[in-house]
Amino acid sequence: MSMDFQATLKALGKQAKKEAEQRKIEAVEAKKREEEQVDFAKAAGAVTPLKNSQRYEAPRPKTTIKPRPKAENDLAEEDYFYVGQGGWDEPPATFSKNGQGKNDIQRLRNGHYPVVADVDLHGYTQEEAQQVLNEFIEFTKKRGVCGEIVHGSGLGSAGYKPVLKNLTRRWLMQHPDVLAYVEPRQGNDGAVRILLKRPRREEE
Q1: Are the C-beta atoms of 139 and 132 separated by less than 8 Å?
Q2: Which residue has better confidence, 204 or 20?
Q3: How far, in Å, CA of 96 to CA of 94, rounded?
Q4: How far is CA 96 from CA 102, 104, 132, in A?
Q5: What is the three-class DSSP state of 105?
Q6: pLDDT at 7
Q7: Are 169 and 177 in contact (CB under 8 A)?
Q8: d(Cα 144, Cα 155) in Å, to the nearest integer?
Q9: Is the pTM for the entire model greater than 0.70?
Q10: How confident is the model over 117-158, as pLDDT tens digits?
């Protein structure tokens, strides 16, 4: 019995020694982890809180942005003049709609009226071209009575059909402010020179 007791004590002593060594190891590791842990406040140093700037911030507008109103003498979009597709396959090279047609055409050809504005319609669709023409007529009327429009001969169009050329001339023939047009240069059907009605204030 005594031998068994001595063996038990010896085993308990070994176990206690082993546990003591384990606690020592854990204590060393805990101290190491504590040393490695960064003290953020100490590392950052003294922090000065931001002051309230008391800056006024205007409230965001709740209404939608409205477009700038156009000048009263500008042409409103609903007043644009348009012509439909179709009509003459080949409008005439010259045109006049009043009783002095021959005189108007001759004067246009001779450069009697100074060309106060010109426009090139290359690259526009048919609808865009008519929008540009409307603005061009108004622009020209403010400066004189004669302008020049380059529409091209239409040789690059599908089927070699001059779309913009025919559209432009049909448009001019029907526009109420256009009195006449001619091809300004002989042998070149890619442009027309136009004559407009004089403003009423000049007629009175």
Answers
A1: no
A2: 20
A3: 7
A4: 8, 7, 22
A5: helix
A6: 64
A7: no
A8: 32
A9: no
A10: 999 999 999 999 999 999 999 999 999 999 999 999 977 666
